[in-house]
Design goal:
The complex is a heterodimer of chains A (626) and B (408). Chain A has 626 residues and is mainly α. Helix content of chain A is 61%, strand content 1%. In chain A, α3 packs antiparallel against α5, α9 crosses α15 and α12 packs antiparallel against α13. The longest helix of chain A has 37 residues. By secondary structure, chain B is an alpha+beta fold. Chain B contains 12 helices and 10 strands. In chain B, strands 3-2-1-5-8 form a 5-stranded mixed β-sheet, with no helix packed on it. In chain B, strands 4-10-9-6-7 form a 5-stranded mixed β-sheet. The radius of gyration of chain B is 34 Å and the shape is elongated. The chains are: A mainly alpha (626), B alpha+beta (408). Chains A and B meet through α5, β1, α9, α10 and α11 of A and α4, α5, α6, α7 and β7 of B.
Chain lengths: 626, 408
């Protein structure tokens, strides 16, 4: 096999690798190669996304036609949809599992897991992750978490149904809702495994980025993708353990009779023995992760879109340093804003005021990022690859959803908007759609790197336009439901006179959601078809500067045959005046681009500047340096 | 190579296009036929999954044919040595421009049509401040929303790829960066300050001893609300969840004198222009007391009391006139996921004049009934309050309730 031959070629680079033979299992199943693990994360993520999307269609059907029977639902769901109508507690289970899967399994593991694994070693010039074994474990813990979560659909009492935030006491008392029985236990087990997976991944990403960069790759020469993954991993490492702490306490409350979250509870007339706990404690612990979590979701997407927008605008990303500093700003601030989820939960109102201030401050770095994207597009030479379309879509969603965050971050306005459809619309745009678009941009952009094949661009266009339009059609009208005081997680709008006027909107939204779901078939077909039958990709299909495109198309363990390339410049030298091509890869030394070097390229290195000056004197060509 | 010849053949191309048109029309014809023919029980067809799968497959087929036709067209252009087929950069950039125009219209439509279906103006003092701030925020964000989208899609349209052009190398400009850091920061500072002051005015009220707010206690449980009025003393009495029984569902501690005159009510009736202090708590799980017309929301938490004070400014009758809806009524309902019946957990609210309120109040029954008197060892026949108090003091020692502190 070719891989064995290639392995020999770079054997001298890491002799300690020994002479392990690749079997089917070590290559595709328990692989320790970061590229294979990335693919495993991606495909698992895609499968979970399809499941979660399917769940959303089920509950959208219920919302649109609350008084109609759909016999096929009974076929699939059995007693949870007796007579073809979804039951109200199962409706809540659907919402809960949809949220959990999307937030954790798709947008955290599927996004961060895929692209951190794929790009970190390739873009910083490393042979693999710092600990390939830990990396493999990270995937398998994630996989088990998925299996356990899905298994809750096959038990008598059904999956967890207290909302994805699983607030106790609802989630702690099986008498309150059937889903809080075994289903909730499985949810908690799954979550612990998921956090273990995230931590192993995160620690690996951070140590790889800090220790294994190739020669010349200082921190300020890293692509923004790497910065985003790096800061995301730090966020995860610092916040996920708090969730585990919360989860463990909840397990104790549920199974061992402790009272961390429970007190003064009477179910009907049954007085529970728990005393002294506080349900608010869970909310603090949960949102201490939960808020950083939304940045864990969006930051990799922003990193990916920075790279994609720059490459396809054929322009350096505007304000590289500002982009990094705003990411750092978001990272730091995201730890002190969790309380904005709790303005009206009975938390001390004094805290509400403080959290409002920190929350609105975090809008500043987000605004800076948006403006920088716009400035990057300005006077670019934009190639509308599918990846670029999705990146532009991301910016649009990020703006739309970000702006509604200014309403919700304001404690006074939140009083009337909290837990309404306005919130649903807000986070589905800013973290749902935007992050999914970031992920799709990444898939279209790095598919050639992952599989050595090209995806079909035209199907990509179709996929983008249908999804983009449908997503707006779904989420834009939902804001208005919220402004009319319609709460989220309502099984039906039939019991309130004032909600009846929204029924037609609900039908429209459901059709739009179905359109969006069907559009994904274009993607799924394109994705799986191209893996096998796609056109073979050239070495550097997007004419990009970053290091991963210098690695051969044919995958090999260790990424580069021979030596790892050295890096000389930042990754955004696109359309540099004085250079003939409109891109200069990071591996090209300044000595080869004398005609396009700019004074600040040398970062104050007097000797280099002198050489450049001498060259310019010797070659008095009229230079147009824009 | 014969395949290539076949593809580049003009006749084949023409055939492919014809086929597309045919497939297209026939697909529509099929749909039309399906819609027109069995007028008897169309409902069954629309309900069958197969029908939708077939429609979807037809659409897929159509897309596949269009795709092939496009490919044929491009290959034939290429074979004839003409400039490459369709300029997808132009197509996509034009679509962005189109999306911008249609999108802006869509936003306008949403703002005017759906925007007219929203909650009426706030019916409380603090609600007006919230509304004002909402409007200010809405104006600012709408301007930013439209401006940034015009730039985003406008740039996408203007700067589409051209082989003749090179992008403008413009890596940074610190002045611009500073401007668009400071301007949003300033705008947000204004919003934060306003929000902060409004928030303080809602939750940190200085109580005027001459105008004590009317206390109303609301207790939530799966899936209903119980309302308790304080009675003549103006203070709702103690509760202790451990006293909960089938006849004393709220666990009211009747050994507390203040509890004995507490009234139960089916709906919340409040006098207009008088401050109301809502004392919220929950028996089982967390619920949320949401009364959107007054811009009031606060979670009800088991084991903890939450308090929201507000002043209604419009009576129900006034509101019916304003909204032109004789059936209009104020409501409160649950906004925090609480179980299977979450979607139907509501109570009516009636805002009336002071006089009507006093009248209504006299008709309400006390929570304390003969059954409960027996349970708490109180004389069944209404006795002078003083002796009741004495006997209660003795009995309460035996019960030893874990009393909650209540702000009085």
């Amino acid at each position: 096999m070719s891989t064995i031959a290639l392995h020999d070629e770079h054997n001298h680079d890491h002799a300690d690798h020994g002479h392990h033979k690749e079997t089917l299992i070590s290559k595709y199943v328990f692989s320790m190669d970061h590229k294979m693990i990335a693919k495993q994360f991606l495909i698992t993520g895609i499968i979970m996304a399809v499941i979660a999307m399917g769940l959303s269609i089920l509950f959208r059907i219920q919302l649109a036609w609350p008084d109609k029977n759909f016999p096929f639902l009974e076929t699939f769901l059995g007693k949870w949809a007796e007579g073809g109508r979804i039951k109200s507690d199962f409706y809540l289970a659907l919402v809960t599992i949809h949220g959990t899967i999307m937030v954790f399994f798709v947008l955290t593991a599927g996004l961060s897991g895929t692209f951190s694994n794929l790009l970190i070693p390739l873009q910083i010039g490393a042979r693999d992750m710092a600990s390939p074994f830990l990396n493999m474990l990270s995937y398998w813990f994630f996989f088990m978490a998925c299996v356990v979560m899905m298994s809750s659909f096959f038990i008598q009492t059904g999956p967890a149904s207290g909302g994805w935030t699983v607030y106790p006491p609802l989630s702690a008392l099986p008498t309150a809702i059937p889903g809080s029985g075994l289903g909730m236990t499985l949810w908690l087990i799954s979550m612990v495994m998921f956090v273990a997976s995230s931590l192993m991944g995160g620690i690996n990403y951070v140590s790889t980025i800090l220790n294994m960069r190739t020669k010349g790759m200082d921190l300020w020469k890293m692509p923004l993708t790497i910065w985003a993954f790096f800061l995301t991993a730090i966020l995860g490492i610092l916040s996920f353990p708090v969730l585990v702490a919360g989860v463990v306490l909840l397990v104790f409350d549920r199974s061992f009779g402790t009272s961390f979250y429970l007190s003064d509870i009477v179910m009907g007339t049954t007085i529970l023995p728990n005393e002294g706990g506080s349900p608010i404690l869970w909310q603090h612990l949960f949102w201490f992760l939960g808020h950083p979590e939304v940045y864990i979701v969006i930051m990799p997407a922003l990193g990916i879109s920075s790279e994609v927008i720059s490459v396809n605008s054929r322009k350096p990303i505007f304000g590289y340093h500002a982009m990094v500093y705003s990411l750092i700003g978001i990272t730091v601030l995201s730890f002190i804003v969790w309380g904005h989820h709790m303005f009206v939960t009975g938390m001390n109102p004094l805290l509400g005021g403080v959290f409002m201030i920190t929350t609105l401050i975090i809008a500043v770095p987000s605004a800076v990022k948006t403006f920088n994207y716009l400035a990057t597009l300005w006077r670019g030479n934009i190639r509308f690859t599918p990846a670029m379309l999705f990146a532009i879509g991301l910016v649009s969603f990020f703006i739309s959803g970000g702006l509604t965050g200014i309403f919700l971050g304001n404690a006074s306005l939140d009083i009337n908007l909290h837990d309404t459809y306005f919130v649903v619309a807000h986070f589905h745009l800013v973290m749902g759609s935007a992050a999914i678009f970031g992920m799709l941009a990444g898939v279209y952009h790095w598919f050639p790197k992952m599989f050595g094949k090209m995806m079909n661009a035209k199907l990509g266009y179709l996929h983008f336009w249908l999804t983009f339009i449908a997503a707006y059609l779904v989420f834009f009208p939902l804001h208005f439901l919220g402004l009319d005081g319609v709460p989220r997680r309502y099984y039906a709008f039939t019991e309130f006179e004032f909600m009846k006027k929204w029924l037609t909107v609900n039908i429209f939204v459901t059709w739009a959601a179905i359109l969006a779901a069907l559009a994904q078939i274009a993607f799924l077909f394109n994705f799986f078809y191209s893996i096998f039958k796609g056109k073979v990709s050239p070495q550097n299909p997007w004419e990009s500067n970053t290091l991963e495109w210098t690695a051969p198309v044919e995958h090999l363990h260790g990424n580069w045959p021979g030596e790892i390339p050295t890096v000389y410049r930042w990754p955004y030298d696109y359309s540099k005046p004085g250079h003939d091509a409109d891109f200069i890869p990071q591996t090209v030394p300044f000595s080869q681009t004398m005609s396009s070097n700019l004074p600040h390229d040398f970062e104050g290195n007097a000797e280099a500047e002198k050489i450049q000056q001498d060259w310019e004197l010797a070659n008095p060509v009229v230079q147009n340096k824009g | 190579m014969s395949l290539r010849k076949f593809i580049t053949n003009k006749t084949t191309a023409a055939l492919a296009v014809l086929l597309t048109v045919f497939a297209n029309t026939s697909a529509f014809a099929q749909n039309a036929a399906a819609a027109a023919a069995p007028k008897v029980d169309m409902g069954e067809v629309y309900k069958s999954v197969i029908f939708y799968i077939l429609v979807f497959l037809a659409v897929c087929l159509f897309i596949a044919i269009v795709g092939k036709a496009l490919k044929v067209y491009e290959l034939s252009r290429e074979a004839q040595g003409k400039e490459g087929g369709i300029n997808w950069n132009r197509v996509n950039s034009s679509l962005f421009a189109l999306f911008l125009v249609l999108g802006l219209y869509g936003v306008y439509w949403e703002y005017t049509v759906h925007g007219a279906m929203l909650l009426p103006d706030a019916a409380s003092v603090h609600g007006k401040r919230i509304d004002d701030m909402f409007n200010l925020t809405l104006i600012i964000t709408t301007i930013v929303f439209i401006a940034t989208h015009i730039l985003l899609f406008g740039f996408s349209y203007i700067y589409k790829y051209s082989a003749k052009r090179k992008a403008y190398y413009y890596p940074h400009n610190n002045t611009i960066e500073k401007i668009w850091t400071i301007v949003p920061a300033l705008v947000l500072t204004v919003l934060v300050l306003m929000g902060f002051l409004t928030w303080r005015s809602i939750f940190f009220k200085v109580e005027d001893p001459n105008h004590k707010p009317l206390q109303i206690e609301v207790t939530s449980e799966q899936f209903k609300w119980s309302i308790r009025y304080p009675g003549a003393d103006g203070i709702v009495g103690h509760k202790n969840y451990k006293l909960t029984t089938a006849s004393n569902t709220l666990g009211i501690d009747f050994s507390d004198l203040k509890s004995r005159d507490d009234l139960m009510a089916d709906e919340m009736v409040i006098p207009v222009n008088k401050p109301v202090k809502l004392i919220l708590n929950s028996k089982d799980v967390i619920h949320s007391f949401y009364m959107p017309h007054f811009r009031v929301q606060l979670n009800t938490v088991p084991g903890m009391q939450t308090i929201f004070e507000f002043t209604p400014t419009k009576t129900t009758a006034q509101m019916q006139e304003e909204t032109n809806d004789p059936n209009f009524k104020f409501l409160f309902y649950c906004a925090k996921i609480c179980g299977a019946g979450h979607y139907n957990m509501q109570k009516d609210v009636r805002v009336v004049s002071e006089k009507e309120y006093e009248e209504w109040l006299t008709k309400q029954k006390t929570y304390l009934n003969d059954d409960l008197r027996k349970q708490f060892n109180l004389p069944v026949a209404p006795a002078p309050v003083k002796s009741v108090a004495d006997s209660a003091a003795k009995d309460s020692a035996a019960v030893k309730p874990n009393q909650m502190a209540l702000n009085k």
